[in-house]
Amino acid sequence: MLGEQAESRSALEVRARAILQGAGYERIETPAFEATELFARGVGEATDIVRKEMFTFEDAGGRSLTLRPEGTAPVCRAYLEHGMHKRRQPVKLWYLSSFFRHERAQAGRYRQFWQLGAEAIGSDDPAVDAETIVLLSSLLAEVGVRDVRLRLCSLGSPQTRGEYRERLQAHLRSHESSLAPEVRGRIEANPLRAFDSEHEGTRRVMRSAPRLLEHLDAGDRAHFEAVRELLDDAGIAYEIDSTLVRGLDYYTRTVFEFTSDALGAQSGVGGGGRYDGLIELLGGSPTPGVGWAAGIERMLLASGSSGGTLDSERSRDSGTGSAAAPVELFLARAEPRSAADRRTAFALLCAARSAGLRAQMELGGRSLKGQLSHADALGARYVAIVSERQASLRDMQEGRQEEIASDAVVHAVLRGLRTL
Ligand code: HAM
User: Which residue of 18, 39, 135, 310 could cross-link 11, Cys pair, CB 3.0 to 4.6 Å?
Assistant: First the structure.
């Protein structure tokens, strides 16, 4: 990486930091290598990453170590090792690190590459899924990634997936002779990957294959519907793709992938999803999580900036860059809660951020009292306690409170901060 390319990367980092830290994410960096076991267990023995793509070696003490192929398992390990469950949940972390996969190198696919990632651990609120997706969408827009498409799906719970897997295996077995040899060889270990195959016969068989999305249980279906509603309200366009297969085994419920038609064969620019079982799998107590990672090289390629055209002038830190910068508006949820007030609070969160405010919303399932003390800890200047149509807006500095229509909240805060 030379001169102008380095400039583009720095500009991207400044923008990413402004967006993520403005949304309450803290930087984390984990070591470049970890115990091999972490990835074998966390990412999954049957995945291509673990089976074929890891750079694994023994150290002088005979321990098996692996250059990290991805960041989610290491961040979850750090969450556990550093007792982060004792912090306010969800714990929101971001990273910009190099990763290593033994793949056949080509444009947009390297053996050492960089990812920008974000992980929110400790909440199963569908608003966290939607928030992370909106953040990545904003980042791709900011960076100028062209021709972006978002694919979305839900994988449900491990139980649902287990039952579905058997149904899919039965379907594959009954059409075994039409399948590509490598798909046939993976019916037992990883039947879902059959959806990824380019082989004509396999594609024909997969057209009539059962779809997981049609077999979700009521809780998973409700969660997915809530994520979709929040994205609709935020004006994020997406396609539901019931064949979306991510190459990592830890996903539960929501999965998503942003692609750019400006890239060639390697069109995935960023992706992620929920991993509600991962922390437990790594030895912790059941703790939900959701996040994404986006490839730095691919973002720059897809924005036409790999030669250094990402304007570093435009990427000056907008003042939202400091982790310590106090929140200007905290959106609390009135009690009793409803799905409708979650939608109102989320829509206000998106509107406030678009207007340039440092805003956060309640994502941790706290009581009203707990929400107010959380807002206090964040140094929030305004707190809006939101129900579907009404909000109580408190100016924490002046000690004033007014009852207003929810859709007037952002305007009132901007006026109060005299930025209008
Ligand atoms: P992933 O889809 O494997 O997800 O990788 C995320 C992004 O990293 C891809 O969309 C792509 O832009 C980039 N990438 C992957 N492999 C390469 C490569 N060989 N060369 C260049 N770029 C590459 C994960 O890694 C998950 N940890 C994401 C996540 C976070 N899920 C939940 N939290």
Answer: 310
Q: Which atom of ligand 1 is nearest to the CA of 298?
A: 12
Q: How far apart are CA 44 and CA 278, in angstroms?
A: 11
**For atom 5 of ligand 1, which residue has the closest CA?**
293
Q: Is 292 in the pocket of ligand 1 (CB under 6 A)?
A: yes
Cis peptide, bond prior to residue 336, ω within 30 of zero: yes
Q: Ligand 1 in contact with 291 (CB < 6 A)?
A: yes
* One domain, residues 88 and 21: yes
Ligand 1 centroid to Cα of residue 342, in Å, is 30
State how far the Cα of 32 lies from the Cα of 34, in Å rounded to an integer: 7
- Measure Cα distances from 23 to 13, 138, 191, 203 in Å: 15, 12, 38, 41
Q: Domain containing 46: what range?
A: 3-156+216-314
Residue whose CA is closest, atom 10 of ligand 1? 270
Pick the last residue of a domain from 314, 347, 370. 314
Of 176, 195, 213, the last residue of a domain is 213
Nearest atom in ligand 1 to 101's CA: 19
Ligand 1 center–CA 232 separation, angstroms: 25
pLDDT in tens, 290-304: 999 999 999 999 998
* Same domain assignment for residues 79 and 203: no
Looking at ligand 1, which atom is closest to the CA of residue 275? Answer: 32
289 ligand 1 Cβ < 6 A:
no
Residues 111 and 227 in one domain: yes
pLDDT (tens digit per residue) in 103-149: 999 989 999 999 999 999 999 999 999 999 999 999 999 999 999 99
Identify whether residues 407 and 308 lie together within a single domain: no
Whole-number Å distance, alpha carbon 359 to ligand 1 midpoint, is 28
Per the document, the length of the chain is 420
Bridge partners of residue 65, in order along the sequence: 35, 57
- What six digits make up the tokens of 399? 């000690």
- Indicate whether 126 and 147 sit together in one domain: yes
Report the CATH number that the domain containing residue 120 is assigned in CATH: 3.30.930.10
Does the residue 320 lie in any domain? Answer: no
CA pair distance 321, 334, nearest whole angstrom: 30
Phi, psi of 338 (to 5 degrees): -145, 165
Q: Using a cut of 0.85, tell me whether the model's pTM lies above it.
A: yes
How many domains does one find in the chain? Answer: 3
Q: Is the CB of 138 under 6 A from ligand 1?
A: no
Instruction: Of 127-131, 250-254, 334-338, 411-415, give the lowest mean pLDDT range.
Output: 334-338
**Does residue 165 belong to any structural domain of this protein?**
yes
